[in-house]
Amino acid sequence: MLIASLKKEELLKIFYIFSRKIGIFILFVFILFFDGTYFTTHILDSQTPINILAILSFLLMYYRAYPRTRKLMIYAVIVGLLGEYFFSVFLGMYTYRLENVPWYVPFGHAALYGRVFIFSKDSYIRKHHKAIEQFFAIIIIVLATIYLLFFYDVFGFVMTAGVFLLLLKRPKDRLFFYSMYILVAILEIGGTAFGAWKWPDTAFNFFSFLPSNNPPSGISLFYFLLDVSCFLIYGLIHTSNRKRFKAIYKRNLISF
């Protein structure tokens, strides 16, 4: 394993960057407790304060982000909101506690997207990206296999396989999506454990041949849609950047 070949100082720095860039979302899992069934049943319904907290956190991250990341975060809010209503409300892929779409979700999507993007582009992380990617891939495979064997999570396993298949020809995106996979898995496990949302026993509560755990592993597959949509919108709006990227791509082909 490549990660084992790194020095202790290198591992500590990687862990520090991971914690500083996206570790906050691991802490956010515990905030989901306050939108869960136990707290809202026995104490009070606190979804509104959580929504406000999520928006304020998004604004803080937006203020500290680079200009390009800011634009991608705005697009992620829009795409995330539309996607949540489509997959949750319309298709019934999963259901939130109040059968709505809490505002903390699309803003959380965008904040997570922005922070993972920043983490994956960090110069020190890029330097050791192969070791990190291999380590994350092993974690993902182990998680999906455990879910399949012990929770009969066929749907999650299929989606996990889809993640690896889509990344076969996109090596530059592996670090981003492997990181996203792990963070989304942590948030999903926490959110469903607290009862903030739930997944049906089968995919979309319709495909009986795809049994699903609550939550399924591999849900980050749908973040490909978020990623592709955000960059597509960015390219359509910022045509000058799109032309510049195409010119660089063509020049690299010629030089190759």
Give a description of the structure.
- The protein is mainly alpha-helical.
- It contains twelve helices and four strands.
- Helix 1 packs antiparallel against helix 6, helix 2 runs parallel beside helix 10 and helix 6 runs antiparallel to helix 10.
- The longest helix is centred in the first third of the chain and has 24 residues.
- The C terminus is likely disordered.
If you average the pLDDT, what whole number results?
87
User: What is the distance, rounded to the nearest whole angstrom, between the alpha carbons of the first and last residues?
Assistant: 31 Å
List unreliable stretches of 5+ residues.
248-256
Biggest sheet overview: 2 strands, antiparallel
Number of domains: 1
The computed structural class is mainly alpha
Shape: globular
SSE arrangement, N to C:
HHHHHEHHHHHEEEHH
Radius of gyration: 19 Å
Major beta sheet, strand line-up: 1-2
Helicity level: over 70%
Number of helices: 12
What kind of assembly state do the chains in view correspond to? single chain
Query: How big a fraction of the residues is strand?
Result: under 5%
Strand segment tally = 4
